[in-house]
Amino acid sequence: MGDGSAERHSRRPTVSLISLGCPRTLVDSELYLGRLQRGGFRVVDSVEGSDVAVINTCSFIQDAIKESIDTVLQAVELKKLGKLKAVIVAGCLVQRFKQGLIHELPDVDGFVGVEGFGDIETVVRRVLHGERPRSLRRHPQLPHQESLVARAALTPSHYAYLKISEGCLKGCSFCVIPKIKGPLR
């Protein structure tokens, strides 16, 4: 008989994360993972078999939107097959399309906009309790400095991305960054 540590470890809810898009999204994904690890979740590499899959999406160009939606639909299919308990969609796709996305993806369990760093633990916990939470802030704010310390690196150990600003002040007709990320800050 052991000390029970393996049993306690296996009971911790597992979370997998897929990060799509640019390096800024990757930094956001690292913040999400850091928060989740600090919150007692066990982060795993494989979506299949995890309790919750978080998909951090991109919606800058049409190809990115398609990749994001296809990835979400693949995760939803795994959920329907019983290989995954819940799917949470996060990031730019959620922020850009908000309620329309929620309506179009009824099998997704939770949604987190671009600045949901502080909300991700709560959203995952609520999803695991059968709720369908949404964290859609109207005017995103930069994460507090303490959350930057909680990053879980997804890059090789010899480099890391550093996000020094968010949003944009330009109003270019071809660009959706200010709509998604808000004004430069």
Brief sketch in words of this structure:
This protein has helices at 5-11, 23-38, 62-80, 92-104, 120-128, 145-149, 177-181; strands at residues 14-19, 42-43, 52-57, 86-91, 110-112, 134-135. By secondary structure, the protein is of the alpha/beta class.
- CATH class equals Alpha Beta
* Overall average residue pLDDT: 86
* Total beta strand runs: 6
- Which structural category do the helix and sheet elements fall into? alpha/beta
Q: CATH topology, what is it called? A: Rossmann fold
Structure annotation, total helices:
7
Order of helices and strands: HEHEEHEHEHEHH
How would you name the CATH homologous superfamily?
A: Methylthiotransferase, N-terminal domain
Number of domains: 1
**What is the radius of gyration computed over CA atoms, rounded to a whole number of angstroms?**
16 Å
Residue windows where pLDDT falls under 50 for at least 5 positions:
none
- Write the CATH architecture name: 3-Layer(aba) Sandwich
Q: What is the makeup of the main sheet?
A: 6 strands, parallel
